[in-house]
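Need fresh eyes. Consider my entry:
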Amino acid sequence: MSTFVISKRYNGDYKFVFASRKGKTIFTSIACKHKSDCESMILAIKENMALFAFTKVRKASNKYFFRLSKDGLVLANSRKFSTELMLQKGIDEIITYAHKAEILDFSENDFAFSDDSAVFEEGAQ
């Protein structure tokens, strides 16, 4: 299942990524001062993808990426794709699965897995 993953940047701002069903990041949002801004953008994407535009860009290095925008404001940039076909597959993944994608929030902890190795060591004895 595709997922939106909210996390914190090193400077304290929030961001989210949209990851494919295979776990590969398709796009990363702009920096947000508040987690609620990320949540609002995710809900808007999930509820009405038709309001958003995909602008395809080809770099001089022959890599492709897209910008996701709404009302002219760029909200996210995709990863780089090696071909235009792969770029289109990334966009299709968003259009097809974003509305039912899971939302994961890793913004509260610095690490997804705590360092409770002592608990595992006790159980192994």
About this structure: The beta strands are 3-8, 14-19, 25-29, 53-58, 64-70, 73-78, 102-105. The domain at 3-124 is CATH 2.30.29.80 (PH-domain like). The helical segments are 35-47, 84-97, 117-124.
